[in-house]
Design brief:
By secondary structure, this protein is mainly alpha-helical. It has four helices and four strands. It has helices at residues 2-23, 51-58, 65-72, 111-136; strands at 30-33, 40-43, 76-78, 90-92. The longest helix is centred in the C-terminal third of the chain and has 26 residues, at 111-136. The two termini are 21 Å apart.
Length: 152
Amino acid sequence: TIMASAYFFQLICATLALVHLATSIAIPVSPAKVGSGEQTYYDPPEPINPMGRLMQKEYNQSIPMDAIIACELKNAAACPSPSSDGTHRCVNIGDICDHRPQCPGAEDETPVICFFHEDAMREITRLRNYAIALFRIPPNIPRQSSQRNNGY
């Protein structure tokens, strides 16, 4: 039963870590109409990468929300500084902190953004590896034998 308790504890810790990761990212919920009636339901959007929201926070809300949402739908982050035409360019998540600025003001390469990006990627990799290992190793739970051992 000690092994079963240890396995259960590991499972609880992994679940709590994943729940914490999932709930630490604020995801907006948008209402959607059902048919032509007045009934509404909530249709949560696809999971989004928080990088655009982090840039929004770090640059004092200078990115318009419609630009953030448009970039999030492309799994990208909106640049805080607008391009010469006034639009906020979308930067692919894989291009953030690659030592080549894509934003007009090079905000995608700032230490604050890169620290968060690298730390988040490292934590996601660690949790993914832990979850894979957890589900690959069967628990060592003693099983009851179908035969009686006659007291031996």
